[in-house]
């Protein structure tokens, strides 16, 4: 057994640090657990009270490669000893160029591509939209309910879930048109899945009349599998329709794969499952194995549209972050990593399907590959979300040694984002803990 608990979570040392967090950091900075970390390797986290836990949140999808993957740590150390930062706006360094070459290669599509690096996922999405607007000379952006794209002013404007993320902020950026996302689970009662998808596509087409004229549509921005919104895989026909609309109108199709990328779904990018090639793709999170790096990769003609000096920042492509990302890509390119990701996905999928049969508080289990989630409801018929029960289950499971985070527009889902290097025993142990909490609930 990996999980070893010596104190309650949080123990006394953790409590002391949590009190200092409360006094020194803003109240609005939420946390899904009271775990105070002392060490993290692979999928295992030690807290400052000597407790050993299993990480099923992976820093919200950042740690697909595992905490402190030895080759990543080595690469970081080696780069830090040579030079730490000289800035892409001032000098050129090979790891940055190498990383852009690698991203141009691994992202979907055989067309010529270029990559712009930045520090956070928000910046990558912001860069994508700014560049798409510049290239098309249009302003309109279509995005989706449940979408999460970041917290800078433009990306917060594109982000959904008002109460949690947007309340009290603003005014937000303009020329943004938000459509319901085609969430098959929450389709109207009695409507078939096919009718719902057809109807959703019709709404999408109608938006080009009711909300934004194609001549002013710069981009359609979508997460192929919504992350924050509740691991909602976008139906195949819907994603294909977006591709079609972008082909017809000249708008830029932007896939935000910041959470779904880097083998979270068992492939480098979720869009590969669909065979749909976006014009631009954003990555971050697991690209950097914990170091802050993000990327906007797109068709060369789009990426090159901006005037000299129109893009960039102090830290984008910082050498140490590039060294880490290069090791991540190298490791993920091995067949063994892919096989491991697929195995993790299959085990989770199987367990979750059983849970759905066993526990009536579970309304839905879904996802793609190892990107999987459980949705809790008060009633299976009405599908009334149960966020309080979800929180109770999380608190119970954390007290028994796994680190978890919620998701979903209604905060009634538990998403599973364990590092993909987790062993089969660890994975089953953690799933047993979560199942125990669900059974008690
Ligand atoms: C799909 C998606 N896009 C963008 C972001 C924003 O990334 P960051 O928090 O690094 O700014 C996130 C973060 O959760 C995300 O999941």
Explain the layout of strands and helices:
Blueprint: H1 12-24, E1 37-41, E2 44-47, E3 52-55, H2 58-61, H3 70-82, H4 94-106, E4 113-118, H5 121-136, E5 140-144, H6 153-158, H7 162-166, E6 176-179, H8 193-210, E7 217-222, E8 225-226, E9 232-233, H9 236-249, E10 252-256, H10 271-274, E11 280-283, E12 294-299, H11 300-303, H12 319-332, H13 335-358, E13 362-368, E14 371-376, H14 387-399, E15 402-403, E16 405-407, E17 413-416, H15 424-440
Parallel strand pairs: 3-15, 5-6, 5-7, 7-10, 10-11
Antiparallel strand pairs: 1-2, 2-3, 4-12, 8-9, 11-12, 13-14, 14-17, 16-17
The structure holds pyridoxal-5'-phosphate.
Mean pLDDT figure: 98
CATH domain topology of the largest domain:
Aspartate Aminotransferase, domain 2
Number of helices: 15
Say which molecules are bound, naming each kind only once.
Answer: pyridoxal-5'-phosphate
CATH class of the largest domain: Alpha Beta
- Calculate the terminal CA-CA distance, rounded to whole Å: 24 Å
- Structural category is alpha/beta
Q: Say how many strands there are.
A: 17
The assigned CATH architecture of the largest domain is 3-Layer(aba) Sandwich
Shape: globular
Helix proportion: 40-55%
As for the number of domains, it is: 2
**Which regions have little confidence, pLDDT < 50, spanning 5+ residues?**
none
Q: Give the amount of beta strand, in percent.
A: 15-25%
